[in-house]
Amino acid sequence: MMAGGGGPVAAGGPALHVPVLGAPALQHLNVRDGGVYIDGTFGAGGYTRAILAAADCKVIGIDRDQTAIALGADLVEQAQGRLTLVEDRFSNLDGVAESCGHETVDGIVLDVGVSSMQLDQAARGFSFRLDGPLDMRMSGEGVSAADVVAAASERDLANIIYILGEERFSRQVARAIVKARTEAPVVTTKALADIVASAVRTKPNDIHPATRTFQALRIFVNDELGELAAALIAAEGVLKPGGRLAVVSFHSLEDRIVKTFLAARSETRGGSRHAPEIKRAAPSFTVLTKRPIVADEDEIARNPRSRSAKLRAGERTDAPAHRGEASDFLPRLPSLDDVMRGR
Ligand SMILES: C[S@@+](CC[C@H](N)C(=O)[O-])C[C@H]1O[C@@H](n2cnc3c(N)ncnc32)[C@H](O)[C@@H]1O
Question: What three-state secondary structure class fits 313?
Fold first, then answer.
């Protein structure tokens, strides 16, 4: 996420955006002259600018949103060969590095979730505060939130909203959506926000009743948790020994994936009491943040969105990458294909 306002003068001129937890993330990346770094969530380029300014290094910036990549063209020019921007998903960061001629890299930073740029544009359909098409696709491709709302069974909707939105009233919301769509297709953010508000009981000072349902649909449509888990595994494969991984996340589901991944990959103890003969793979990461780093009061005052941000970081060891699947770190949910079949 980004905060508006001026920032330190970085490579390519004054920074337009100061990224959340930018200073500690940069510190944990340990940017060095001659290094190659991946900014997997280029967005408005806040992290990339800071990395380019920190040392005489190269950056590969990835974003699945073609608008973000297009807006970065000026920065590419200013960076004079030190920045390559690629429109892709960060789950493929190893493939992107290879296509840029790098088998390994020195550091990877991910600042996951949706950008202010995306949230603030009604036409992207991310925000219940702005009326627009019920879209929510970061890449603008594939199945939209309106498609999911139209096709998913009541049970799948309830599960998605409960697991990815942590919404207590998920069943009531799913029932209200299914009832409403028999009367008219739900194709705008306002229509969905009104349906959810009719189904969720709130107290004064509660967050907007549609917050959790919108979060759930956005995460589901973009497979955000699957992307994150796959990116961590890809990072394990492509980081050099001593290379750094820094991840900033904005809610507990994402943070749990990063925390569990780093804990699993840094585990040093042998087999369990019940199966002492099982030998663990040597740790592939050393955890650098025993507790997650959070924004201080100053940063929260400047940018309230930083309140929920957490930074975790690890350093790659020289042990081989562990075997494992992204699904090891994910909550159980039906796939987008299953849901679209309306099972
Ligand atoms: C929170 S913003 C990043 C802001 C950025 N750090 C900055 O300083 O401007 C997240 C960005 O990551 C992108 N993104 C989210 N998930 C992605 C994925 N799986 N692959 C590639 N880009 C992704 C979004 O499109 C968005 O532009």
Answer: strand
Residue with tokens 């959506």: 177
The lowest-confidence range among 69-78, 108-117, 199-208 is: 199-208
Computed from CA positions of residues 324, 330, 333, 335, in that sequence, does the dihedral angle turn out positive or negative?
negative
How far is ligand 1, taken at its centre, from the CA of residue 108, in Å?
13
**The ligand 1 atom nearest the CA atom of 250:** 1
Determine the atom of ligand 1 nearest the C-alpha atom of 228.
19
Q: DSSP alpha helices (H): ranges in the chain?
A: 22-29, 46-54, 66-71, 73-78, 93-99, 116-119, 145-151, 154-165, 170-183, 189-199, 211-221, 224-238, 252-266, 297-302, 336-340
Nearest-CA residue for ligand 1 atom 2 is 115
How many whole angstroms from 4 Cα to the centroid of ligand 1?
16
The rounded distance, in Å, linking the Cα atoms of 285 and 265 is: 6
* Pocket lined around ligand 1, Cβ cut-off 6 Å: 1-2, 17, 19, 41, 43-47, 62-65, 68, 89-90, 111, 113, 115, 138, 227
Q: What is the pLDDT of residues 163-192, one digit of tens each?
A: 999 999 999 999 999 999 999 999 999 999
Closest atom of ligand 1 relative to the 65 alpha carbon: 25
Is 8 a residue whose pLDDT tops 90?
Answer: no
Question: Using DSSP, how many helices (H) and how many strands (E) does the chain show?
Answer: 15, 12
At residue 293's C-alpha, the angle toward residues 290 and 299, to 5°, is 170
Nearest-angstrom CA–CA distance, 61 and 93? 10
**pLDDT of 151 above 60:** yes
246 strand-pairing partners: 109, 313
The first and second tokens of residue 112, run together, are 């996951």
